[in-house]
Each structure stands twice: as C-alpha cells, then as structure tokens.
Amino acid sequence: MTGGLQRVASTILLVGVSFLLTALILWGSGYRVGDIFSGVIQGSMTATGAATSSIRWAIPLLLIGMGVVIGFRAGFFNIGGQGQFYVGACCALAVSLRWSDGPAPLVVLCGTLAAVVAGLAWSLLPGYLRVRFGTDEVLTTLMMSFIGALVLQYLTAGPLRNPSGTGQTAASERIPEAFRITDGSGVSATVLLLVGGVAVLVWLLLERTRFGLAMTLVGRNPTMARWQGVDVRRVGLVNFALSGALAGLAGAVELYGPAGRLVTGFSPEVGFTAVVVALVGLLSVGGTVVAAVFFGGLQSAILFLPIVTDLPPPALVLLHGMVAFLVTVKFRAVRLRRAGPASEAPTG
Amino acid sequence: MEQILATTLRSATPLVLVATAGVFAFRAGIFHLGLEGLMITGAFTTVAVAEATGSVELGILAAIGVCMALSAVYWWVIGPLGANVIIAGLGLTSIGLGGTAFALGAIFDRRGSLFTDVVLPRPVSGITSGPGVIVSEHSILVWITPLIVLAAWVVLRRSRFGLRLAAAGEYPFAARTAGVNPSIMRLQALLIAGALCALGGAELSVGALHNFTENMTNGRGFIAFVAVIFGAWHPIGAAFAGLFFGFADAIGIQSQINITERVPREFVLMIPFVLTIFAVWLGGLWRRRSLEAEAGYAELREPDY
Questions:
Q1: At A254, is the pLDDT very low, low, confident or very high (cuts 50, 70, 90)?
Q2: What was the pLDDT predicted at A166?
Q3: What is the end-to-end Cα distance of chain B in Å, rounded?
Q4: What is the ipTM of this complex?
Q5: Cβ–Cβ of A321/B303 closer than 8 Å?
Q6: Number of domains chain B is built from
C-alpha cells in the first residue's frame, strides 16, 4: 500500500512542520528551545509519574478521538465531542451524588451508562437532523458543544455546586471515594482494560464488520452506497450515536478516574484536540492510539514544564492549532495543480 | 431599559462587525470557523501596539495588517494546499487563542490581562439619565459600524465584485466559465473578512473596555458565525441577528443583577445556540439545500483527505 505509506509520511512531515513553526515562534520569543525540549521529554516520559500522567491525558483523547474517527469515516463532521464529553460527565456526576449511599459497583455502572446515554443523545440530535433533514452537522454539533459547556457551568455553579468550595472557579461536590476507579493519577488496571477493550471493539467494528464497511462506503460516496443497498439513514444515526457514546464514556472515565468532581470548564480543549488526534492518526484506530499517547504526553509535559522553564501553558493550544491548521494539507493536490496546464484565466 | 439598550449596542457591535466578515467569507463559499481566532488576534494586536506606540490608530492598523496576513495564510492553506476548511479554520481559532495568550506572557510577561489607557475616542459621553444614556459612552466604532454594514451590503449586492463573489461561492464552475477565478475571489473575501475581524476585536478591547484579557472573545467569533447563518448570509440580516444576540447578552448581564433567582444566566446564554440549531434546521427545510453557497463549500469540503 504505497498510498497508505505516503499518507503516513506526509502526516508525519506536516506534524513536524507544525512543531518546527511553533518552535520557531518560541525561539523568536526568547525561550530556549533546547530547555523546553528536554522539559517535554522529562514531563512526558522520564520524570517520576510522567509516563502515568501521559497515559492519563491520553485516555480521554483516545476515547473521544475514536468517536471522531467513526464520525469522519462516514463523512460526518461530528465536532461536538467537547459537549458530549461534558454532558456525559455531568450525568455520571448527578447519578453518583444523588445515589451516593448505593453499592459502589452498581452506582458506577449506572453512572457510566447514564454518561454514555447522555453523550449519545447529545450527538443523536444533530445526527437525526442531519440524516432526516440534511441539516449541516458541523454547525449543529458545534452549537450542541457550546450548550453542553453551559450545562456544565450551570450544574457546577448551581444545583451540584459544592457550597463550601473556596476556589475561583465553581466546582461540584466530590463523589464518594468508593466510586473512584483509579487514584488521583488517573491510571489503573480497570481503566486500561476498559479503554483497551473499547479500542479493540471499535477496531473490530470498523475493519472487520459489514457495518463498518458500510460506514466507510457512506463516507466515500453516499449515493453509491445507497445504490448498493446500504441504509444510509440508519448508518448515519448509528454513527452519530457511537461517536457521542464514546465521548460520553470519556466523561464518565474522567469523573470516576482522575477528577472525582467536576470544575466549570475543565479540560476545555479536549474535544478539539481529539479531532486533531484522529486526523493525525489518519482516521485509523491504531493511528489514533499512537496519536493520543503522543498528544497526551504533550499535555502532561505542559503541566510539568513550569518546573523547568517559564513557558506559558497556552503555548500548547498554539501548537494544537498549528497541527490542526496544517494536518489536512494534501500534497497530491499541490502536485496536480502544478502539473496541470494553467487553465484558469486571471480575473480583472 | 435604557441601560439594556446601551449594553445591547455595546455587546452587539463586535458581533456585527465579525458577522459582516463572516458574510463575506460565506458568500465566497467558505465556512469560516477561524473568525474567533482572527477576532482575538485583532483585540490583542490593537492593545499591544497601542500600548507600545501610544496611538490607537496605529494599533488598529497593525491589527488589520496582522489579521489580513493570517487570512492570506488561511487562504493559502485551504486553497492551493487543499487543507480541510473546517479543521484549518478551527486550527486558526486555536492559533489565535493560544498565540495571543502565549504572547501576553512572552512579550508583556503578564498572565491574564493587559490594561491600556490608549482607547478609542467616544464621541458622546457624560449623559447619565434619560434616553441619552442609550447613545452615551460608545466608542467611535459603534457609530461607524452601521455605515460598514451598509457598505458591505452595497459591495455584496450592488457591485460587480459582490456578484462575482456570489457566483464564485454558489457555482464556481459557472464563475470560471465567465472568466472569474474563484480562488482569487476567495482570497479577496478572506482579506476583507480579516480586516473586519480586526475591527471587531479592536472594539472589544479598546472600544468597550480598556484591556485585553486571555480568551476575552469567549466564543463571540462563533456567535458571530451563527449570526451569519441566522441572518441568511445577508449583511443586513446578519447585522440584525448580531444585534439580537447582543440584546440577549445584555439581558443575560442584566439578569445576573436582577433575576438570577428565576432564570440562571447560563440558560439565557444558550439562546443563540439553540436558535441557531433551529435556524439551520428550518433553513434546510425551506430550501432543499440548507446553504446557498453550497457548491463553493463543496468544492473546498471534500470528504477524502
């Protein structure tokens, strides 16, 4: 598959260019890039607990990113992962706080189910509008994302607020310690098994089932897929549902794992970064795992960096933006245009 | 009531300016999700340059220059380089949000915000009671914005350039046949949009306020984009949509003071987003295709990348 290799090479090249540009900006602003680089290596791998922290940040990126892979495979630009993640986390929180005296495994199971259903519903509304009325899903998922962020803000500042909280930003009450599936590090065998299992299931679905093939077909050419007897509407609905369910699950894992409570506007970039992760992973499950660990490592490193250098954390947002800005560039398009005759007349 | 109307004008002006930018891009068939990034870049550059040189005019000119340069790069990436419009646009937004917050720390060694005494002139000020409050204390940009909207309408609907732009957006194939290069039209539309975003950002930082704050646009670029859709990608329509969202914002601010017990502010803030979902849905129902500029959009938005 030379085409596949070419895509991998061009993606690595583009990500490299994005890093280089960001490094140039940092260097131009007077930061020592060498120090930052060694800081990133320490903060993502070699320092105490750094590798664990990288995995901890990779987990939500991987779960939401696989949702993005599923969506984009079928040609649906479901970019509302952030909101689906938030409402998922909110529902899990509401279940856990309202039923805080229940048996831990049962409550966690119910909370996770609630999160999955909430994320699914948050995604299914734009999905239904898309497949039934042809409503543009880029806008509707984006809007649902903003609404989800406001729901979180409302709940953490209102009904579920921890009244004794003293922090600047509003935060909810903590869920009972018994419900946590990890310690503060956010990594445990349970979580790794869960996320690994989900990744394998998604891979099986996409690469080894007729339904996965149907999704890819719909993404390539919906008209053709319809002619071949694919129920495009059903595929679309299931597609949106799966994307949302994965993002909702990520919300539950965040709550029961490292967070333990919800803070207004937590992980504000995760939905967008997950899109970047899925694109860098070339919309394949394996690639997304690699990309999620990579970007998780960067996230972990940026939290570590203040220890070695005074780099402002927004530099990471800048880097993500750079990667997103460039990662979809098509080299083939450039070559074709150069090779083709200059058929377009200049205008006055 | 006067206070609400005055706040409406103040909150709506940046929205209207950026929505006008969005209309230009939309007419050219570009789903411009980078508006937010350009807006915050405009806000930051204005404050930074105004603070450094002491001249707000220079600040605004610099902001326009930077935003137009970024827009040109955006055009290059989505046009000749064939990147995905939506992803690159969101990337542009992150570059703007991250880049300005980073620059604030790197250049001014500040976290959070940067204050400035150099602000836009306010033609009418000092009125504290009566209906005069509505027009008092607004920056010069608030007064100019209606003229900009009118100019945008004339350019888009009554000029050769505007009609060519619409052709390039709606049906690039036909535009090409008529000797119009859609790619160049897109560049021009994006440059105009960049300049307008810079103005919107400047109004936010040195018009209504005296400072630049990290993430101060707070989703306004997206709300402006929403106003474009809600206003049926017509400059006047988008302006009224922007005005309406400004009104909703003013009510939200007011409700925080008066009626918090009854209506939480978050629900008021949801209004634009909920309305947009309805607008996009209805738009799709009324015309079979939800987007007038769909063909140009489709030319850029290819499923295979």
A1: very high
A2: 64
A3: 52
A4: 0.87
A5: no
A6: 1
